[in-house]
Description:
By secondary structure, the chain is mainly beta. It has one helix at residues 90-102, and strands at residues 6-11, 17-21, 30-34, 45-49, 54-58, 63-66, 83-87. The chain has 1 helix and 7 strands; from the N terminus they run βββββββα.
Amino acid sequence: MSNQIIADLRKNCMGTVSFNGKFAGMRKAQNFIVYPMHSGNSTESALVQSNTRIGRIHLTTGEVLMSPSRQGGSYNVHLMLAKPADALSAEELLLFKSAIFATADGKAGNNAMHVFTDNSAALEVFGQVQ
């Protein structure tokens, strides 16, 4: 993969996926977390956040919408400023969706505080058809 924009997909303590992402306009890769997907949430896209950016990755097209970098952090309100930033290759999108699918659980998480989240809708990421 010559133009890899996501790497090191892994399960985090919240029970969802974390990855290193370097999207167009970024100087270096940042650690992103994928928000839990639970019943009632759309599984059309995955909400992702780093320390300075927030965005969405469309799960059928691979299109990446990303907010501008904010030193104090980017949050849901900053999604209004998100613009198309990149697109995952077909291979990266498949790996991304597979990693999300592998974390599907009604009580996802594994940490010392015993805080769990509903990530059950992650089972539906392959249900979107182009």
